[in-house]
Amino acid sequence: METFLVVAGLIFLLVVFMYNTLISKKNQVDTIYAGLDAVLKKRHDLLPNLVASVQEYMVHESITLEKITELRTKAMTHSLDSRETIALEKQLSSMLGNLMVAVENYPTLKANENFLHLQATLSEVEEQISAARRAYNQSVNDYNNAIEMFPTNFMAGFMHLERKEVFSIPERERSSVDVKNLFQK
């Protein structure tokens, strides 16, 4: 009788251990998936806003430089009378002064800096996604092993646990992000 109780107690402990292990692995997969989902949402929210801000600055910088070039070209023509030349030079000086003040006060407000920031952010977000995918796939692998290996496969069958899919990358996403297309939207 005593041997029967010891064996029954060991079997009960084994069942509890297997149940808790399976639940722990299932919850780990769900938690890591939530982290991956958050990073993917960050990419979807962040990229269009970064591209839009770079585009806006490019337009601002382009308009300013085009206006200065136009004024300079006009100023170099010799068909202007003295009053027109003075007015044009005042306008050109004002535009150049504003451009210099803007560059001195906001040295980081250059399209080049914005592109570098965009590039660094793209790289950082992609690295975060890659790390989250690896963690998710590893947890799915552990979970799938647990529900398919003996003896936990019997317990998983009773609990109706099913295999989870790893996060694989669709073929179209294996290519680099086409930032040029993002700028054309």
UniProtKB/TrEMBL annotation:
It is a single-pass membrane protein. It comes from the Bacteria. Keywords: Membrane, Transmembrane, Transmembrane helix. This is LemA protein. One of its GO terms (cellular component) is membrane. Belongs to the LemA family. It comes from Sulfurospirillum multivorans (strain DM 12446 / JCM 15788 / NBRC 109480). It is found in: Membrane.
